Amino acid sequence: MTTTNVETPGVQPKAPTCFVIGPISDQHAEDDSAAQKVYEESIETFDKVIKPACRKNGIVPLRADEINEPGEITEQICRQLIESDVVIADLSGSNPNVTYELGIRHTIGKLAIHISEKGMSPFDIAGIRTVRFVRSQSGLIEAKRDLVQKLQEGLKGGFRPLTPARILLGLPTDVEAADPHPQSTPDDDPLGVLDAMAEVETHFDSVMTPIAGLTDSVESLTEAAEAIAPMLNEANTDGATIGNRQKVVIRAAELLRPVARQFKEHANEVWNHIEQADKGMTVVLDYVESTPVEQRVPEHLVFLEKISTLAEESRGSIAEFQDVAPALAGLSSFSRVLRGPVNDMYTGLKFLVESAARFEAWEKRAGAILASEQRELPEGGQPADEP
């Protein structure tokens, strides 16, 4: 079963209603608190992604905190979840209220679109209509474009109700409706080695930009840390008043905040490229490992050496930041005003550690292949040309 919007000839179609659920927090939360960050990021996603994408489709989205009608807010939210033509759920931050509200919507059988910052989804949404994005300027633009398309597809092309709704409505489940002889699609077909190499090359070329940005960010962080250190030392002198100390801390947070956010965004971009390249890299490594040494082509060696170079650059970026990290480790406990920037820095470090681990796994396999080349080729021998 698919659901579509049906237009009656000669009648102006009514604009679809759209309800937006997300990690809405207190707009009056304390500066640099976790609650304030959640609120600001949810507003950014709504203003830069959801609202303009809805406008492109002639929709006026309604957020839960914008409901002005009298009555119990919980009841109004439930009515919107059940009655709205479209529900867009911002899953970033794994907010339990959002997950609960989305569960209600999943039983209705109406259009629901998920949007989530990469790495922040609360459950497996691989089979559900989802917009995944990186919280950067280009990432938000891509998310808006993707959401425009998914809204168009859902409103005009139709959609299948999710499994909970199909069960409740007595419709065939995926297993019951499965084609005994399904036709493969391009996404189902495994990558060939040339396809995989091209895909990996694309991500390798793209990842160099955020890696270069990381170098700049680390330099900026180092400069900020060096500027902050004497300020904090002065604030800790016996003659300093609490008010003066607080002013120093606020100034330190102002210096750290933009470079910490930039560092996190660059690190997130690096990780996303590495994560997307992993499938292709696995195909390439599997292929080269299974190819006899005498049949391997020189391009294999160049490709594997490139892995080693990128792994070294990635580790270098992490090492530079790790030199700065100990000096910043105590800042979040010094004052809550500093927690936002410090959390951004450690989130960025987490992305880099994950990226480096993936690079090192590739490098380990690549190194073993290169070592086998040296062991098994005759003295002075060269890999054979590709047949």
From TrEMBL:
Q: Which organism is it from?
A: Catenulispora pinistramenti
Q: What is the lineage of its organism?
A: Bacteria, Bacillati, Actinomycetota, Actinomycetes, Catenulisporales
Name assigned to this protein:
Uncharacterized protein
